[in-house]
């Protein structure tokens, strides 16, 4: 799986290259290319934004640098091209599984007031939002997409960790405990120390159902 990120702020992506995603990149399990849109501007000052036609606050990212960048990284439109935008479909776990089917994803990050609409009309396959709030740009959302896709790429995370986690079965995960068995007067539930795996599984399933029912009744069970 390859992810190409198009951004005016490549330095914002440093965190992706540490921890689990960083190790996955180093091991060659996933390729993440960060591409600076400014490198494709065909004007003398590498200008990439301008005032909006019709007036209004802020600046809009110009179509030429973005169009040229997309044509350079995906000349035959073989990749799935996503524009991160609060106007897009909200990212959920099922969408993450969908995205995993693509061999190559291009993530376009807007900044300021966004990108010229013609870039979306000409080049973009879908818009994706990470939630109903507005961020200063698409960089953090692009990192969110990279992270949650990368962790499902084969060999990045142990299979067992992915099976029980929240949303994996349309439910929230049960609570986890580790040593010590008592901390500040709070004891680990007895059943988890029992060694009886059937009882432990039953307790975890019940806790998962209880949490989902009370916190996220909108999730189907
Ligand atoms: N850009 C700004 N806000 C965003 C959001 N919530 N999701 C995706 N891209 C964005």
Write a compact overview of the structure shown:
The chain is of the alpha/beta class and 221 residues long.
Instruction: Sketch the major β-sheet.
Output: 5 strands, parallel
Overall geometry: elongated
N-to-C SSE string, H for helix and E for strand: EHEEEHEHEHEHHEEH
Beta-strand fraction estimate: 15-25%
Describe this structure as you would to a colleague.
This protein is of the alpha/beta class and about 220 residues long. It has seven helices and nine strands; from the N terminus they run E-H-E-E-E-H-E-H-E-H-E-H-H-E-E-H. The protein has helices at about 20-25, 65-75, 95-100, 115-125, 140-150, 160-165, 195-215, and strands at about 1-5, 30-35, 50, 60, 80-90, 105-110, 125-130, 180-185, 185. The strands form three sheets. A five-stranded parallel beta sheet has the order 2-1-6-5-7, sandwiched between helices. Strands 3-4 form a two-stranded antiparallel ribbon. A two-stranded antiparallel ribbon has the order 8-9. Helix 1 (about 20-25) links the parallel strand 1 and strand 2 (about 30-35). Helix 2 packs parallel to helix 4 (about 115-125). The model has no long low-confidence stretch (mean pLDDT about 95).
